[in-house]
Design a protein that fits this description.
Length: 649
């Protein structure tokens, strides 16, 4: 029985409160990113700012319906939710105000620190449960629980003894705990880039992305799918939220694909994989590139350069499969009357290059922080939206507040995950569990690096299920990446490895939320869509293993090795994608598909992984694929179907 009905007036009050809190959350974070308080002469601990962000996020999470709610409660907010929202905000504000005193008295374990620390721990876990479900809550409880009894465990995983009350105070107030690095990154860099994305899209950027995708790809066979790939890659790189990307672009592109002749599950899968891949598309990468640069203490440019080839291979596989599927199913280009002229689109939309240019200039010319650079880009997008817009649409000053509210509404999940990651980091540090676990995994890696990578990949996929990409990366950077680095894996390769595998949890069964959202739009079976999404995005499961063993795919190493690795990998990805579809200049039977796939695997082997025999294996694969190509062309002398521009299969 509900304690409060879903009365429209009550819901109106709740909506207004949530909007106010969300907008305030964004404004507070933007002020911090712009160093506004310090410019005005105010001095404070960073942890005080983080406590305010945490409190606002907790209140929003408790007021907005969580996924754990029963069906009969989704229409209203219970009194307990209001109480939890007020409690979370109140305790966090208490920490913000009294932080200096709490820290100075922390060693004596004062009662207020114990009560507030324990209460915040429980509130964050409940907020985490509502935001992303039980999986991560269980992970946190297991790690914290182990931290209290780990000193009793014999062997390599034995930890230091830490009393529960001291652990509670440490996790709540130490800079290595709740109010630490992960929450700080989420509250500054992530907020700034999500806000930038909102401003860019409301200024007309979303319409421009769709139009340029349609103008460049609409005339090709299977043009609807190619429009989806280009538009979703552009949009996804900025939005940083896979589900939002799918909803924003999928409502148009999925319908176009179905009307063109693609199966509903195929249309949904293409959109889900294209939207997910936007997170790995340089230069923005959904803000993860900036987080990775902060964590690794490496230049942002190094991260972007390393991500170029894996992202290229990801989209080559998706594009080739969509193209050959169109050839196989005889899917025509979209109606020419619906396609805008590229010259006209660029004439109206070229100015949207400027926000990205502003970010690059801020980063590399003025050496600004990532969050400050995002504000430069957001300011440029706002100026464009207010003055020029795109087509007939213009921004108003009211859109600025709407953008702040939408940004704030999209953040609490990431804030909860970052807070949970802070708990994990705190336990790993104070008990020594981090060192013990890393040592154990390194010992495993010395026996078999491949086995360590395989275990890590499974953990990444499981922990990432249902979580935002940024949150997934922050969590895995704490739990998995250090072990890989300690085994000798190139740090950038280790972090890209966990990022890719964690990201693919968005389309991987049984909880492929991105695939499920796309399936709902397409009215397709969710699990069928998820399995098909895995096939379209297959490179993201394989390429990370390859670039760990051969950093040439990350453009690291000898130039000759890099060129060979990239060229053979692109051809290999094409071949394996063709084998999946069963089409190479025409239908390919089971035996020919297997041979095409084997040739692709031989080409995909990068320098260093196959030792001195790599070049011979690559050459054998190329010769085999060339022979199969010639056979296919001879057997099907007339192309199955070509688009208006004459592209062939």
């Amino acid at each position: 029985m509900k304690q409060e009905t879903s009365n429209p007036s009550v819901q109106g009050v709740k909506g207004a409160v949530v909007s106010f809190l969300a907008g305030l959350l964004t404004l507070v974070a933007i002020a911090q990113a712009a160093s506004l308080p310090s410019r005005l002469g105010y001095s404070y601990y960073t942890e005080q700012f983080l406590a305010v962000v945490l409190g606002l996020s907790l209140s929003i999470v408790f007021l907005v319906s969580g996924r754990a709610r029963s069906p009969d409660e989704t229409g209203g907010t219970r009194l307990v939710d209001w109480a939890l929202a007020v409690l979370g905000l109140g305790l966090s504000l208490y920490v913000a105000v009294a932080y200096g005193s709490l820290v100075s008295r922390a060693m004596t374990l004062p009662w207020d620190a114990l009560v507030v620390g324990a209460a915040l721990f429980v509130l964050v876990l409940e907020g985490l449960r509502r935001a992303v479900g039980w999986t991560l809550v269980i992970v946190v409880l297991i790690i914290v629980g182990y931290g209290t009894i780990g000193h009793l465990v014999p062997g390599a995983l034995q930890t230091r003894e830490v009393a529960p009350e001291r652990l509670a105070v440490y996790l709540a107030f130490d800079p290595n705990g709740l109010l630490g690095l992960t929450l700080n990154i989420a509250a500054t860099v992530v907020v700034a880039f999500v806000f930038f994305g909102q401003l860019l899209l409301r200024s007309g950027g979303a319409d421009f992305f769709n139009d340029i995708a349609m103008a460049t790809m609409g005339r090709k066979r299977g043009g609807a799918a190619k429009i989806s790939i280009v538009a979703s890659a552009l949009f996804g790189s900025i939005s940083g939220v896979v589900v939002s990307n799918i909803v924003a672009t999928g409502v148009v592109t999925i319908r176009l694909m179905i009307q063109s002749g693609y199966r509903r599950s195929t249309a949904a899968a293409v959109e889900a994989v294209a939207s997910t891949g936007g997170q790995i598309a340089p230069p923005v990468m959904g803000a993860v590139a900036f987080l990775m640069a902060d964590i690794l203490q490496r230049p942002y440019a190094e991260i972007v350069v390393a991500a170029i080839v894996p992202a290229l291979l990801y989209y080559v596989a998706l594009f080739v499969q969509a193209d050959l599927q169109a050839a196989k199913q005889k899917i025509q280009p979209i109606d020419l009357a619906d396609i805008p002229q590229t010259r006209s689109v660029m004439a109206r939309g070229w100015i949207f290059i400027l926000p990205f240019a502003a970010i690059v200039v801020a980063l590399f010319w003025f050496n600004q922080r990532a969050e400050t650079a995002a504000l430069w880009g957001g300011g440029m997008a706002l100026l464009i939206g207010l003055t020029l817009g795109y087509g007939k649409s213009r921004m108003t000053l009211g859109d600025l507040w709407v953008s702040a509210v939408e940004t704030g509404r999209s953040l609490p999940e990431i804030i909860m995950i970052s807070a949970a990651a802070g708990f994990i980091i705190g336990v790993l540090n104070v008990t020594g569990l981090g060192f013990a676990a890393t040592f154990a995994l390194v010992d495993l890696g010395q026996g078999s690096l491949f086995m360590l990578l395989l275990i890590s990949a499974v953990v990444c996929l499981i922990l990432g299920m249902g979580m935002p990409t940024v949150g997934v990366y922050l969590l895995l950077a704490v739990l998995i990446a250090p072990s890989l680095v300690q085994t000798g894996v190139e740090p950038i390769a280790a972090h890209l490895f966990i990022f890719y595998l964690g990201m693919m949890s968005m389309v991987t069964p049984p909880i492929g939320i991105g695939a499920f959202f796309a399936a709902a739009i397409a009215k397709a079976p969710p699990m069928t869509t998820a399995w098909e999404s895995m096939r379209f995005g297959w490179t993201a499961y394989i390429i990370p293993f390859l670039f760990v063993f051969s950093p040439a795919l990350l453009l690291i190493g000898d130039p000759v090795d890099i060129v060979l690795a990239v060229v053979t990998a692109v051809i290999g990805v094409y071949a394996i994608s063709a084998a999946f579809v069963g089409w190479l200049h025409g239908p390919a039977g089971p035996v020919r598909r297997i041979l095409i796939g084997l040739a692709g695997m031989a080409l995909l082997l990068p320098p260093g992984l196959g030792g001195d025999h790599t070049l011979w294996i690559n050459a054998l694969g190329f010769i085999a694929l060339s022979g199969l190509w010639v056979l296919g062309k001879r057997d099907h002398a007339v192309p199955a179907i070509a688009g208006a521009d004459g592209d062939k299969g």
